[in-house]
Amino acid sequence: MEIIRDTLLEIQEVLFQDKVIVIYGTRRVGKTTLVQHILNKYPKKRSNYFNCEDVRIRRVLEDTTIENFRRAFSQYDLIVFDEAQIVRNVGFSLKLLHDSFPKLQIIATGSSSFELSNKIGDPLVGRARYFTLYPFSLNEITTDFLQTDSSIEHILRFGLYPTVVNKSEKEMKREITDITNGYLYKDIFALEGLKHFQLLTDLLTQLALQIGSEVSYNELASSLRISIETLQKYVELLEKCFVLFVLPAFSRNLRKEVGKKTRKIYFYDLGIRNAIINQFAPLNLRNDVGALWENFCITELIKKAHNKGFFPNNYFWRTYEGKEIDFIEEFDGILRAYEFKYSPNQKVKLPKIFMEEYRPQFSAINRENYAEYLL
Predict the structure, then answer these.
(1) 127 and 164 belong to one structural domain
(2) What string of DSSP letters covers 267-290?
(3) Do 152 and 121 belong to one domain?
């Protein structure tokens, strides 16, 4: 099944516009397939793919002389450097290539925005366009897939990594477990020489069990017997590796609103989340369906916005009395508020104080109407 990624369409609009294109995303999310799709549109003699995990490619890129680059790359119109974060001082290498061969289109991919942006950021200021490739969005998968009765349940249980979609349950479970165990930790532990495997797995387990709930860093740090600073460092690394994201509280200093330091944490892919806690049971046997649905809807709204080139500020909202809004998008001064209920029969009661104070656009997304908002 060939699926055209929304990000591909965005990238094609900026090809050969005098910018290095940088694509972030976890391993196995489809970065190589995406760039191969781009390469296939150009003559093979004028384009090429280089895997930076190959030590020979790294040596070429790390020998930063114009003459070396002329011998290696001047015959091409388009080149791709996959897993570019592995290359030492890759930002300087890409800058030199870009400045020396202005007609050459360079694409660099990396599985860690933290590592790649640190190495690329300063040298490529004003010279790059950045894109993030996520697991499949609902908009990208086929209509036939969405029409099957079990499709949404499969997504909530096994996620939307490309190698998971349209597999049998047995294959989906095996594949997402392999991704989690074989690739998830590889990039995280490559950063800053982290060695505390058990600490990371314990942290991920606790966060996986708290999706949809407010997360107390004080309680987490105490439970894991680490400092707040160490906890924050690990959470930031997990964000930079596209495993999870932090949703802060929305507050304009109304007396009853919780402070901005309050946060919820969600996973970019529910298959990864469920693999961490080894929980793939059918929905009718679970007590976390509401949290799964909330995580699913939020990530789909984020992917939908980002894939279209929009980057709103995202929040949740709650008062100390327990009144809350699941998700808020803020873009160009406009607020869009959402509530998520898996069952269409669940009633949605809007907090009067929020609606009167902020007058947002409002939507309630459930199992029956999700396509209207997420596609």
Answers:
(1) no
(2) ES-HHHHHHHTT----GGG-S-HH
(3) no
Asked whether residue 1 is domain-assigned, the answer is: no
Rounded distance, CA 94 to CA 232, Å? 31
Question: Is 219 in the same domain as 343?
Answer: yes
Q: Note the pLDDT of residue 140.
A: 87
How many CB atoms lie under 10 A from the CB of residue 190?
15
Percent of the chain beyond pLDDT 90?
Answer: 63
Q: How far apart, in whole angstroms, are the C-alpha atoms of residue 234 and residue 253? A: 29
Domain boundary among 132, 159, 178: 132
Q: What is the dihedral of CA 329, 331, 333, 338, to 10 degrees?
A: -20
DSSP state string for 59-103: HHHHS--HHHHHHHHTT-SEEEEETGGGSTTHHHHHHHHHHH-TT
Mean of the per-residue pLDDT values of the chain: 89
| Rounded CA separation 267/155 (Å) | 13
For 21-31, what is the mean pLDDT?
A: 91
Q: From residue 283, how far is each of 148, 279, 293 by CA, in Å?
A: 16, 11, 11
**What is the predicted pLDDT for the residue at 191?**
60
How many separate domains does the chain show? 2
257 φ/ψ angles, rounded to the nearest 5 degrees: -80, 145
Instruction: Please tell me the total number of residues recorded for the chain in this structure.
Output: 375
Would you give the DSSP letter of residue 249? B
Query: Between the CA of residue 219 and those of 212, 231, 263, 356, what are the distances in Å?
Result: 16, 11, 13, 34
Domain containing 66 equals 6-132
CATH number at residue 240: 1.10.10.10
- Which positions ≥6 away from 238 have C-beta within 8 Å? 188, 204, 244
Point out which residues pair with 50 in neighbouring strands. 81
* Whole-number Å distance between alpha carbons of 13 and 223: 48
Contacting residues for 373 by C-beta, under 8 A, at least 6 apart? 297, 301, 338, 363, 365
Spatial distance between the Cα atoms of 242 and 230, rounded to a whole number of angstroms: 19
Same domain, 127 and 175: no
**Same-domain check for residues 178 and 280:** yes
Question: Do 242 and 356 lie in a common domain?
Answer: yes
Give the tokens for residue 335: 């607020």
b/e string for 114-148 if b means 16 or more Cβ within 10 A?
bbbbebbeebbeebbbbbbbbbbbbbbbeeebeee
Phi first, then psi: what are they for 212, rounded to 5°?
Answer: 85, -10
